Amino acid sequence: MVKLNADMKEAFPKMKVFPVATASKDGTPNVVPLAMVSLHDDETIWITDNFMNKSMTNIRTNPKVAIYIWGPEIKGCFQIKGVASIKNSGKEYEEMKAEINRKRPELPARSLVIVKITEVFECKPGPTAGSKLI
């Protein structure tokens, strides 16, 4: 796994909605706008599954995900790729569920998706577009 640098970590609380992409086992893409995404540590992202039906089906058969980070308050633009696992019980799941219940008790917080970051790519236009950052 790889660790995000300081600028990348600073971007997370500035994002309001995260485009999160998954693909089915046969490669059919799916992207959803998610607000319940957080940086758990330098190399791990937590995503709360409230209503992610297609995405969860995809992750169960193909755990690779991509998350796009960009906005007017963010330095740069980057894409995070990682491998996801799903938790429906245990300490991490209970921690996420308690946090969601405090913030938004009306949401179901059905599952916790834990993404271990594997790569980060540049996505701003120019000669370095698409290059691997870490």
Automatic annotation (TrEMBL):
Matching InterPro entries: Pyridox_Oxase_N (IPR011576), Split_barrel_FMN-bd (IPR012349)
Protein's name in the database: Pyridoxamine 5'-phosphate oxidase-related, FMN binding protein
Domain (Pyridoxamine 5'-phosphate oxidase N-terminal) ranges: 6-122
Domain of life: Archaea
